[in-house]
Amino acid sequence: MLTPTKDRLRIDAREKVLGRPIFAADVPLPGLLHAMTTPARIARGRITAIDTAAAVAVPGVVRVFTHEDFSGIRVTPATLGGNQPGFQPMTGPDVVFRGQPVALVVAETLEAASEAARLVDVTYDAASFTATMDDPGAEPQPFETTIEAGDAAAAFATSEMTVEAEYRLAQNHHNPIEMISTTAHFEDGRLVVREGTQNSNSMRAATAGALGLDPGAVDVLSPYCGGGFGQKNVLQLQSVLVSRAAMMLGRPVKLVMPRAQLFHTASHRPASRHHIRLGASRDGRIAAVLYDTEQENARYDHFFRTGYHEATSRHYGIPAYRGRERLVRIDTSPPGHMRAPHEHPGSFALECAVDELAGGLGMDPVALRLANDAARDPVTGKPFSSRTLGQCLSRGAKLFGWDDRSAEPGSMVAGDGSLIGWGVAAGIYKGSMFPCVARLRVQANGVTRLSLSGHEMGQGFRSVAGAELMELLSIDADRLEIRCGDTSAVQQHHTAGSWGAAGAASAIRAVAEKFIAALTDLGGALSPGESVHQRLMALKRPVLEVEVEHLGTSQGPEALETLRRGGVAVVGPEYPDFVSFSWIAHFVEVRVEPSTRRIRVPRVVSVADCGRVMNRRTATSQVQGGVVWGIGAALREAAEIDPATGFVLNADLADYVVPVNADIGDITVELLDVPDPMLNASGVRGVGEVAMVGAAAAVANAVHHATGRRVRHLPIRIEDLL
Ligand code: MOS
């Protein structure tokens, strides 16, 4: 049966509704052992002794591993293209953050492993430590200028109107539906690792390197990943430990990390500080931005240079921009990427500062933004592949009813006495490309298998890939299997940076064209209404298979080589002849209850442009999800870190507060759906991350409009408004 594709339901909805075991830890394996880690109870120091006697005595315990068992693990910090924690726990006696695994118990049951992990008795020689970037022991690295256009200092010094402010964001933690886990199985010299990862290819290389295996003898399977917003980019800290244990024991081993440990060992959004100076003329033209970012980092982390200014320097046509950044080293677990890792914090700072400028000038915040739109990229002078920020702002203003806004803060009051605030902010996110391999195998009997580079992380990767294929080829939709996130299928890539869909769309187009050419070579073109299966049947060909290795725009074959080595081969947002970004404008209404100052967000309007929309349903969901997370970041989420112990005090979903359904009002999403043929033949750019960029700033700007309070840190809580 052939079905219309554009707004198709999720093609994996049925598997999910039926509760099929789709996540890595759900796959039943014969002889499976269960593992549990023992977390360090100090934040820095050395292990002097480990007594495992009581743990070993628990019935069902198979083995208790300590750092002495794992000293053969090689630490290969560069293997994930630098995008990897530089510290591998349990390879020595050093403790470098609170909660670091110091023992791994493997047992016949989860209960035995958990009980025994508690009984591992570790003696430490504790050292002093620094738990947050505000503590005196924090070690700032030197500032580095990462974007410089024009002479921002001179332009700022002569500006008629200036804003200077510091904005701060708290440490945030992913809390994926799929828990952090690793299941490893070593048999006949082959290691198979099942783990929810966005980067199965690099993970294979890193795991092989760490364990001294040939990468060809390792497969990483992540066919579904239950939430992949950057936390699953890296080789997770438990991963090679579990693989090593499976190799040593000759049985499959599974570790599912308890949520409280996830807060201490899994990658998270680091806290950051943003110092902005912004200069403008009296008519609202922004002339200069001097913007310094500081981000906390682990003492031993190889977190590569950050990237805060790539986006903020392109929000507007700011002729003079100097962006500097530095890392501040503390004793924490390695931070990492979390949805729009630089663009969300950066847009909070910039878009609040722009709002402060509008207030100072007495200008409407939408009009000010439109007056500063850019015709060309102010950093490189190149054209944008597409620039629709002005359209997003204008359309959003109309949908929201912005013209009815009364400018004075606190001047809009609801019937129940609540203060009404209307805020706006814009967001942009790079349009990147990546090599993508697609192998298409179509059978005369109706079965089609598409093997694809890319990971299904819940965003609907299979749905957009399937819809794209079905637009190009008349295949049986119900018998289409899409294999992705699986190193045994085709060469995988790192699915992040909102580049998965654009790369897949381009590769699918190429493989479909190649397939049609191959079919034509075999025996004439398709007749109208004829499916490719029928054609194969008529040709007496049971199966036809073709493969393409599609490069990202402007990439050469060396990108594929990088990929084969397990590296990261990304290109963009700067290309030889243009720069490319996705765009969004958020309009937010808040209501602040007059006595308790409780903040509600009854409605949001977001207008986004991600090029051609491949699947309206999944793209709309992504934008809504980004807005929800923006509201969470703005009003709820913060790790509460105890400076005396380095412990995250709210390490569970009861105390690490995220928005629930009752916190979310109406979120209206409109997608401009303007194809971007300059970026790729499919006209597609990413939407997953731009969705969140600017959302928190729009909330903060709305809170200011409601109350007159300019809160320059996130999250904004009731106590900030008392
Ligand atoms: Mo994303 S933070 O690029 O996985």
Describe this structure in words.
The protein has 722 residues and is α+β, with helices and mostly antiparallel strands. It folds into 3 domains: 13-20 and 433-564, Aldehyde Oxidoreductase, domain 4 (2-Layer Sandwich), CATH 3.30.365; 31-129 and 177-227 and 232-265, Aldehyde oxidase/xanthine dehydrogenase, a/b hammerhead (Aldehyde Oxidoreductase, domain 3, Alpha-Beta Complex), CATH 3.90.1170.50; 272-431 and 576-721, Aldehyde Oxidoreductase, domain 4 (2-Layer Sandwich). 25% of the residues lie in helices and 24% in strands. The strands form 5 sheets. The protein has a 7-stranded mixed β-sheet with strand order 3-5-1-13-10-11-12, with helices on both faces. It is globular. Residues 1-6 have low confidence and may be disordered. Dioxothiomolybdenum(VI) ion is lined by residues 198, 229-230, 233, 337-339, 341, 496-497.
What fraction, in percent, of the residue positions are helical?
10-25%
Helix/strand class:
alpha+beta
- The neighbouring-strand order within the major sheet is 3-5-1-13-10-11-12
Largest sheet: 7 strands, mixed
Whole-number radius of gyration?
26 Å
Distinct small molecules: dioxothiomolybdenum(VI) ion
Q: Tell me the β content.
A: 15-25%
Query: How many helix segments?
Result: 17
Shape: globular
Give the integer mean of the pLDDT values.
Answer: 94
Distance between the termini: 61 Å
Number of domains: 3
- The CATH superfamily of the largest domain is identified as Aldehyde oxidase/xanthine dehydrogenase, molybdopterin binding domain
Number of strands: 25
Q: In the CATH classification, which architecture of the largest domain applies?
A: 2-Layer Sandwich
Indicate the CATH topology of the largest domain.
Answer: Aldehyde Oxidoreductase, domain 4
CATH class of the largest domain: Alpha Beta
Low-confidence stretches: 1-6
